[in-house]
Structure formats: C-alpha cells, structure tokens
Amino acid sequence: MNSTTSTIPKNIIILGAGISGLQTALSLLTSETPSPKPKITIIAKHFPGEKNPNYCSPWAGADWRSHASRNEEDRRLRGWEEITYKRWNEMELHNYPKGILGEGIRKSVYFNTVCVDVDKYLSYLLLRIKTLGGLTIGSEINTNDGLEGVIRSCKGLAKENGIGGEVDIFINCTGLAAGKFVGGDEGEKLFPVRGQVLMLRGETRVCKTLVGDLGEKGDELLYVIPRPGSGRSVVGGCKQANNWDSNPDSQLTGRILQRLKDIGWADDFMDENGHIEVLDTYVGFRPGRRGGARVEVEVEVEVDGEKEGDVIGKRGNAKAKVKKIDGVYILHNYGHASGGYQCSIGCAEEIVRLIAGLELE
C-alpha cells in the first residue's frame, strides 16, 4: 500500500492498557512516522496500579528469554524479540555475576538478559505517554455487538470525553478479551494460559530459568527473576492452558519452593533457620493464541467479488482488502501468551510500520 501525506494529525484509539497497548501508544508517539504526530487515546478497564487476574501484565516476571525456534515460521517472532532486546539494552542496565550450575541440570546457557520490575515499568510507560500528550479513559466496553459494536462504543466514549475529530484508526490490544468480539475463527483461537508466581523476600543477583517438563502434566516450570532494587524476587511458575482458576494453588506453591531448594537456588531467600518468606502469591491469565500473536491490519478476503463469509468452500481469484468499519482502520496486537514483554517493542514498531503503509487521507 502507498501512504499519502496529511497535515492533519490522525486520531488513534488503542483499546487495552497492558504492556502491548502501552508500548504501542508510546512507539506511535515517539516514532518519526506517522507525521504529524497522532492524537492517541487509550481506553481500558484496567490501568497500571490495578490488580486483576484478567489484567495479566502486572503479574509478569518479567525478563527477556527467547521463545523463538530457528524455523521459518518463527521468523517474525525472532524479529520482535531482537528489536525489544536491543531497545532494552539501550536503557540503563546493571551487570550481575554468572550463576552456578545446579544439581540435576545437564547443561546451562549464560547470556546477558534484561529483568523488568513490571509495576514500575508499566507506570513509566503510562507517564511517558501522558507527558507526550496521550490521553486515557477508564471504562469497560460492551463487547456484545462484535468488533463493529466495540468501535462504535469507543468512538462514542471518545466524544463523550471531549476528544474531538473523527477516529481514524482503532488498535486492538485487549489480550484474551479480544475473543469476545473479534468474531469467528479468530475468537476461537484464543485461550487462557494460567500462571502462578510467588513474590519472595530477597533479591537474587541472577535471572534463572529451568527448562524441562515439570509437574504431572508437564505444565510447570521454575524461574527466578529479581525485582531490581526492591529487595524482592519473583519465582514461578506454571503455564496451564485453558485453566481459568483465579485462586492460588497452595500445593503448586509448595512444589515451586521445594524445587527452588532442590536445584540449589534458594540461598538468596532463606533466613538463618532455612525459612523462605513468601510475601504474596499472584495468579494471572496469559493471552494464548493458536498460531501465535496476531499483529496485523484487519482485512476482508473477497473471492470473485464476494466476501469471505459468503464463499466458504469456493475457490477462485481471492484477494485481501483492507477493512474499514464506520470509516475506521482496524489493527490488532494481541495473543502474545508469555512473550508479551520480550516482544513488546518489536510488535509496537511493526504496528507503526503498518500504519505508515495505510492510505490515510
């Protein structure tokens, strides 16, 4: 697509204030394109500082550890991760010593990573967005009428809050909530991946992850991530697909602590009596998606002049056309499962590039 130059700032609504929504807003406000700078409004039920299992960004570790394979199907994922890693390394970092190979570990890999205090980082992103002129609206959006209804509701809410001008672009960064309104097969691709983490007293000096199939179902793992400068660390966890239980599992907590001791990683957290103090236990639902994250412009496929929904099973000259609803372009950035942070900047910059390629008037 060829972009056209406009002297009128574009009015962009971002739905969702997790790591994907906040980073998308910041990348749009700090990028050289589009020009002039767009007017950004974030609409969300939850913002940084709030706690809810369905608002999973505050429950994350978070650190950078690649989830991508060398296969061609992971090419985009590798790119998103690489960009985020490079951007994070441009920020101020602290060097920590190498870890020690623990009991039962066959081999280890050492690399410089980035550990994030997610509460502070989310608040930092939101502060930068507001400083750059971004606006926020705290509200729950009705999802009963599909994507069309969500866009109408967002436009109406923006108008009610005194945000003038027509909405040009809508960016869906709602995570699991997208399944309630994106419709059809796209909605069915989403599923929860339950996570449970412990906040421990004591700040480890090394970020560690034990890779393997732990637990009876192979859906448990062990990782230790410091909250830099806080005197605390996050220890987890599990990746339990299709589990909506928001209550902490005390037996899982016990297994996590026992593994921590068995592998030799508990020294940073034990007092003189060998006791580990658990400050809190968190449960959150990662936005899993079959096929990986969805980062793209909404399109409709036509075959011989008919929309995709009318031509199931037919073959012919198929072509994809950028879809607009009520004059609004739609983009998506959701479904990152446990890779939301480490892909955040890469995915946000891809959204910026996609918008630059739209034929904006």
Automatic annotation (TrEMBL):
One of its GO terms (molecular function) is D-amino-acid oxidase activity. Keywords: FAD, Flavoprotein, Oxidoreductase. Its cofactor is FAD. The keyword Nucleus does not apply. D-dopa binds at residues 223, 286. Belongs to the DAMOX/DASOX family. PANTHER family: D-AMINO ACID OXIDASE, D-AMINO ACID OXIDASE (AFU_ORTHOLOGUE AFUA_5G11290). This is FAD dependent oxidoreductase domain-containing protein. It comes from Sclerotinia sclerotiorum (strain ATCC 18683 / 1980 / Ss-1) (White mold).
